[in-house]
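Long-time lurker, first post.

We've been arguing in lab meeting about whether pyridoxal-5'-phosphate would sit comfortably in this protein at all. Half the group thinks yes, half thinks no, and nobody has a model to point at. So I'm putting the question to the forum: if I give you the sequence and the SMILES, can you give me back a predicted structure of the complex? Inputs are below. Any interpretation is welcome too.
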Amino acid sequence: MSRAYNFCAGPAALPTAVLEQAQQEILDFQGKGLSIMEMSHRDKVFVDIAEKAEQDLRDLMGISDDYAVLFLQGGASTQFAMVPMNLLGEGETADYINTGQWSKKAIKEAGRYGKINVAASSEDSNFTTVPPQESWKLSANPAYLHYCPNETIGGLEYSFIPEVGGTPLVADMSSTILSRPVDVNRFGMIYAGAQKNIGPAGLTLVIIRKDLLGKAGAHVPAMLNYQTHADNGSMYNTPPTYAWYLAGLVFEWLKKQGGVANMAEINQRKAEKLYGFIDGSDFYSNPVEKISRSWMNVPFVLADDALDKTFLAEADAAGLLNLKGHRSVGGMRASIYNAVPEAAVDALIAFMAEFERKNA
Ligand SMILES: *Cc1c(COP(=O)(O)O)cnc(C)c1O
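Top reply:
Settle the argument with this. Predicted structure of the protein with pyridoxal-5'-phosphate, as tokens:
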């Protein structure tokens, strides 16, 4: 058996140690004679797993009791609708910042539910910049401000947390959550699809300040109301039990790695190495302004895009998988989430240097 280096944007690499533990426990979980997947979500064995996962996440991110942590389904895309359904009241306005494909989708979806003010956009720069906060045209009394701290497709990451006074700040952290320490108290709500930096697809995390619960109108379905899930420990209906268990294993693994502060050091080093190599070459380039380059998703193009196919085929053959860029951007993208080891970045850089030598 051999494991390749996987640079997939999502579903993304998982730590090998986590998969090994899951493999060991799959048929007979701790002597119970059955798999987690075959167990009631009301069984104490699963409830303990679920509670430990939540506590470990709270420890990792420093989440206080003022916040509910919800383990939901439907992906970040469902949150694009749930956020306004729950937080945007009759006659209110919500502010959005448009910095890439994911912000755009969130804006489009929110527009179905109420008045949306796009307070700033970097579409003119083809989403290679983050509009400085001084330029944002915030509305007078918005219900919340939504932004995407890390645009997975463009590889654009905010170098700051917006200052919005008393306005609840809502963040789509799908591709940057747990990559570094973040002050959760600055946010009204954080959400993330699990399949980038948490666990397998099928689980969506919501971290929401408790005073923001209970604002949904009477027409909002129970399943799409945060209050329902907060009142029921995310077990109003059957939760994605196996994905929740695997996320719990990832949280344990992160704690063993020294937590998110330590991951941040490694992630920054990985990103700096790769951007440093790209910037030092005339053969590869990345268009994003330096201060807003993502630590997690590194898009790059070849000087001659006729070589893209060869690059990808040879990378694949060398065990460097899933480097194709998003169809809307083209070129390549290396996603280097927590579970992608530094050795993978070293191997990628060595491959890129050799490819340049042969083809430049
Ligand atoms: C992947 C991603 C999404 C979409 O997530 P789904 O779980 O597929 O709905 C939304 N936002 C960001 C920032 C993402 O990276």
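For your lab meeting: The CA atoms of residues 119 and 137 lie 5 Å apart. The longest strand covers residues 115-121. Whichever side wins, do check it experimentally.
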